[in-house]
Amino acid sequence: MQLSRMKSLLKEIKAFIDYLKYQKSASLHTIKNYRLDLYKFNKYLEEKNISLNDVDNVIIRGFMANCFKKGENKSTIARRLAAIRSFFQYLVRKGKINDNPAKIVSTPKQEKKVPSFLTEQEIALFLDSIKPINPLEARDKAIFELLYATGIRLNELVSLNIDDVNLREQLIRVKGKGKKERVVPFGRIAAQSLDNYLKLKSKINKGRIDERALFLNYQGKRISSRSVERIMGKYIKILAINRKVSPHSIRHSFASHLLSRGADLRVIQELLGHKSLATTQKYTHLNLKKLIEIYRKAHPRS
Q: Are residues 83 and 156 in the same domain?
């Protein structure tokens, strides 16, 4: 009987993951995390011998307390709760259960983190340290110049195809979260780096390459997010920047530098592909020092 109930819950989880993938067009990152979160929740229910119909808010809180006891941070536990909440809401819509037991469970309070970013000087040093001597270094230069020129997400960058780039108009077509498309401009230096890379692209892996993908690994296949992170780590190590930075830090730098130079917050929201302006507003924290400086210079009674 217990085995039958376990199989039933796993079946519902798999159906929910398919729903996220094929109907909601959720990102691969979300799908992967929600699958892990729900399998972990399922394992907890198995250990406690609790069936799907017996799950209530107390059991969900018990699961969260168990995660906390195991040393998981608040953001991970909050994501696990979001996965459980979405899963049960899906079951309600399907008529499998009457009510969502997770809807009254409070999300753990998150510590507000200021996004890590590089100063304009650090970005310049980083980008100038990449010398496009061979095809792979030309690729590295194009990758990071484009990331800083557009502020796109790492998974958006590695998903780019050749036909998503308009070099003449200096525009890229980006497929964002939920497969929502947006067009993002890039500047002269990124255009030059891309042009240089595209001229050398066919020399990677002696021309045995994925013709469709924009950025390739040394085997001529589409480059992965993990590879880009590794490549950035190599250059950052040479520069001896003693704090944790990643390709995502370049996105934060892009937004912060535009804001500090007077760009409108809504324009930045559009470029970043944020659904809500509240998500973009976190970048105002990075520019508080600059804001105070401008205020003291400009206000007549400061």
A: no
